[in-house]
Specification:
Elements: E1 6-8, E2 12-14, H1 19-27, E3 33-34, H2 50-66, E4 73-83, E5 86-88, H3 94-104, E6 107-119, E7 124-136, H4 141-149, E8 172-174, H5 177-181, H6 185-194, E9 198-200, H7 203-206
Parallel strand pairs: 2-3, 2-4
Antiparallel strand pairs: 1-9, 4-5, 4-6, 6-7, 7-8
Helix pairs in contact: 3-4
Length: 209
């Protein structure tokens, strides 16, 4: 991996075990600790929208870790898949995964990531949600059954991973691609730059010798 464009100016903690989120931050040159939140995902509140839910989940996960690390900048996120205003979580079994994929096949759906940045010692709290539209072309039941049999859908919201074997399921993305993977990189970096938690390294140090 290259050395990236950014450097951390403060201690960063990623409150997520997601290897994809870890990869995105490390790819930019940032050093950070990984302390996954153990908060259980709550049920949707009455009248709560998917956007509000994603932001609330991200905030809960961030607070879970920030409460014990008040001098660090804590980054948390939660990604949900939404079809016809219904949130599709991780499938409970292979039949459930297949049903999800069949319901998404040949249609557009929405992927929403809520992220939160906390620094309790400085009284900083920032939250934002990013939405992307994803089109999944029609697939035969046989193809979807074979994909489910790989096991990849079982830990993915909406039962597919755009960055993995499931890339063939996606025909078009409107909005942030990294958001669909699990972290809207541009928006997270902008927020970290705004609070001076990270900075840009000298261009001369990036130039080949």
């Amino acid at each position: 991996m290259n050395q990236g464009v950014f450097r951390a100016h403060q201690q960063l903690i990623l409150a997520s075990a997601s290897p994809r989120r870890q990869f995105f931050l490390a790819q930019q040159g940032l050093r950070f600790r990984v302390i996954p939140s153990t908060s259980r995902e709550p049920d949707l509140l009455p009248a709560e929208t998917p956007v509000q839910y994603a932001e609330r989940l991200a905030g809960m996960k961030g607070q879970d870790i920030a409460s014990g690390h008040s001098n660090a900048v804590v980054i948390s996120a939660d990604t949900i898949v939404v079809r016809d205003h219904e949130i599709l979580g991780k499938p409970v079994n292979k039949d459930h995964a297949l049903d999800m994929l069949l319901s998404l096949s040949g249609r557009w759906h929405e992927v929403i990531t809520g992220f939160c940045i906390l620094h309790l010692a400085q009284g900083l709290e920032y939250a934002q949600t990013i939405s992307s539209q994803v089109y999944m072309p029609s697939c035969t039941r046989e193809v979807l059954e074979s994909y489910v049999a790989t096991g990849e859908p079982m830990d993915k919201a909406g039962a597919y991973g755009i960055q993995g074997l499931g890339a063939f399921l996606v025909g078009e993305v409107r909005g942030s691609y990294t958001n669909v993977v699990g972290l809207p990189v541009r928006e997270v970096l902008d927020a970290l730059l705004a609070i001076k938690a990270i900075g840009v390294i000298d261009a001369q140090s990036l130039a080949p010798a």
